[in-house]
Amino acid sequence: MYRYITGFLFLLSTAVFAQTSQPDQPIRGYGSSSVFSHNDYLQPVPFYMAYLSETGYVEADIFLEKGKLLVAHTKEEVSMLNSLEDMYLRPLQACIRKNRGYVFADTSKTLTFMIDLKTEAQTTLPALVTLIKNYKELTTCKSLLITISGNMPSPDKWSQYPSFINFDGRPGIAYTKEQLQRVPLISDNYVKYSDWKGTTNITDSQAEKIIALRDEVHAKNKPLRLWGMPDRASSWAMFMNLGIDIINTDHPQDAVKYVSRYGKDNFRLATSQTTYQPTKKFSATAVPKNIILLIADGTGLAQIYSGYTANHGALNVFNMGTVGLSITRSANGYITDSAAGATALSTGRKTNNRYIGVDSVGTRLPTIAEQLKQKGYHISIASCGDITDATPASFYAHQPDRKMSEPIALDFMSTNFDVLIGGGKNSFVARGDKRNLFDELQRKGYTVSDQLSALPTIDNTRFVVIDDDAELRKSDGRGNFLTDSFRKASAMSVKSKQPFFMMFEGAQVDWGGHSNNLPYLATEFLDFDALVGEAVKFADQNGETLVIVTADHETGGLSLVGGDPGTGAVTGSFSTGGHTAIPVPVFAYGPGAHLFTGVYQNTQIYYKMLQLVGGK
Ligand SMILES: [Zn+2]
Fold it and tell me: 558-613: per-residue pLDDT in tens?
């Protein structure tokens, strides 16, 4: 089923939303304007609950009774107390006055006020027109569409009514061009198309009927509403996947919250990126000379599988062959932060959250990078984030708080490491102590640049490139920074003729998780996975290199609630804006990889690496 549902999601965003509708009725993806407050007068606070959520549609049923227009659901419930004026016209007038001619403070948002005539049009509509004419704010409002539904006059009679009156369209009617201009939406009864109640899956044939209707309505460039559609979160998602423009609901506030998140919960990658097929020609029991440690910050299995799904069912990490699980808790927390998480990987010790390269009482711990440097290794540290941030810092710095970025940058000066690439320039050159660390590094023999574009020109085995553009989102133009940096750093490692250790961080999967943004994190993860492919390819060519891929923790409590590797569409759901305790996968490839199977504490990754290359 999902095969074409998700496929049409793409069609919808390109074909339909690209069209321009009437200027006062823009259709721009899903948001609060997609929500229709059905039978709004039954809400605990009519009008205002929908209005404060900025729904695009509010509906009231009206009866003409003894010359008065009254809001009610059935004739039996009609009460003289529920006048249309009191419940809707005066509140609307007040809002439009307040916003100087617009319904909402956000003047780009429109409100379609749907008035469903329950008594016959011939008498009710003229009475309504006469009444509304008393509210000049409503008849002249630039963002209000007063729209008649229910007992409507036939389209050939519409021209008899003033232009501020619009009409609820129906499918299958050949409206004239003039008539169509007075139709802000087209509605129909859901039960004519489907009896799906919102549980399990809609049948293919019913979905096809709805899609045919949607296409007919969209061909007229109008949004589609289905009244009587199932009204719960799982069905809202299904209707959005089917490209139904308007969510008809009795829960306007919940629906606005849900629909507004839609763009952040859904991702689709149109064309997949290629993956590298490893040759696996190494001896698993051999001892590696070099280690490449790749850390995707905030990446659990759901993040990885979102990338797999979006990338049409292929990932470099899934080709690595060996997998384990790392338990990430810190010394003082069930849930770790990146500082304690990375310090566990770099030193083999659990420490407190926020601590960088020190134990839980603040004692400096040697990091694996420092220990290998002492053994004559070539050391590279890189990140597509601030290089003084917790993860990279935990490999070269020793500070009691991750936020101490200037002391962290200064710590790098005494490491004698060979390569440093990332963002965070100010901690090196705009320091409180007035030291210019770029100048000092240059005097120590490093090639130093604040331009990523300098990377290809570098031929020095010792170099530092710190450019804040490294911290751009992939989608904002970071380019192939991670793989380009990897190629240069690995080439210089080889050129040094020393064994080498590299730590590269994909920093922003974590940021996408913190902002509960699936497109962001999946895009960042796939960029990281391209780096994994480069590293594995390098390991195949080199033959003596172990590649380890893991994370410091999971971020966002992501679960995947829908998707299709066939189309590259995936739907996520987040449970937190922070980190979670769930263990993270460890993938390994190359000589020594077998040590990384099993379930273990994150600190064991340090000991496994040391066992292989540290002579311990
Ligand atoms: Zn984080």
Answer: 999 889 999 899 999 999 999 999 999 999 999 999 999 999 999 999 999 999 99
10, 54, 9, 36: which is closest to 184 by C-alpha?
36
> In whole angstroms, what is the distance from residue 250 CA to residue 37 CA?
6
Same domain, 336 and 232: no
The vertex-93 CA angle with 89 and 96, nearest 5°, equals: 135
Å from CA of 390 to ligand 1 middle: 9
Residues in the chain: 616
Domain final residue pick, 207, 228, 263: 263
Q: Ligand 1 mean position to 547 CA, how many Å?
A: 23
Lowest mean pLDDT among 114-123, 224-233, 254-263: 254-263
Handedness of CA 344, 350, 354, 355 (dihedral sign): negative
Binned at pLDDT 50, 70 and 90, residue 28 comes out as low
Instruction: Tell how far the Cα of 391 is from the centroid of ligand 1, in angstroms.
Output: 10
- Gap from CA of 488 to ligand 1 centroid (Å): 28
Distance 199 CA to ligand 1 centre (A): 35
579 CA to centre of ligand 1 in angstroms? 6
Q: What is the pLDDT of residues 405-443, one digit of tens each?
A: 999 999 999 999 999 999 999 999 999 999 999 999 999
Tally the domains of the chain: 2
Instruction: Verify that 180 and 300 share a domain, yes or no.
Output: no
Centroid of ligand 1 to alpha carbon of 382 (angstroms): 17
More confident residue, 151 or 218: 151
Cβ proximity of 197 and 239 under 8 Å: no
Distance 298 CA to ligand 1 centre (A): 6
More confidently predicted of 414 and 20: 414
190 with 334, same domain? Answer: no
| Residue 290: partners with Cβ closer than 8 Å, 6 or more residues away | 493, 499, 500, 501, 502, 542, 544, 545, 546, 613
> Are 353 and 332 contacting, i.e. CB atoms less than 8 angstroms apart?
yes
What range defines the domain where residue 523 resides?
290-613
Cα distance between residue 517 and residue 390, in whole Å: 22
pLDDT of residue 615: 66
**Is 271 part of a structural domain of the chain?**
no
462 found inside a domain:
yes
Q: Give CA–CA dist 153/327, Å, rounded.
A: 68
Q: 250 and 312: one domain?
A: no
Over range 91-107, report the average pLDDT. 97
For ligand 1, the distance from its centroid to the CA atom of residue 340, given in whole angstroms, is: 11
Structure-block tokens of residue 10: 């793409």
pTM higher than 0.85: no
Q: Tell me how far the alpha carbon of residue 441 lies from the centroid of ligand 1, in angstroms.
A: 30
Q: What is the DSSP letter of 36?
A: E
Let me know if residue 281 belongs to a domain.
no
Last residue of a domain, one of 263, 280, 308: 263
Question: Of 530, 510, 516, 588, whose CA–CA distance to 339 is shortest?
Answer: 510
452 CA to centre of ligand 1 in angstroms: 25
Residue 186: per-residue pLDDT: 97
State the distance from the centre of ligand 1 to the C-alpha of 555, rounded, in angstroms.
Answer: 6
Residues 446 and 519 in one domain: yes
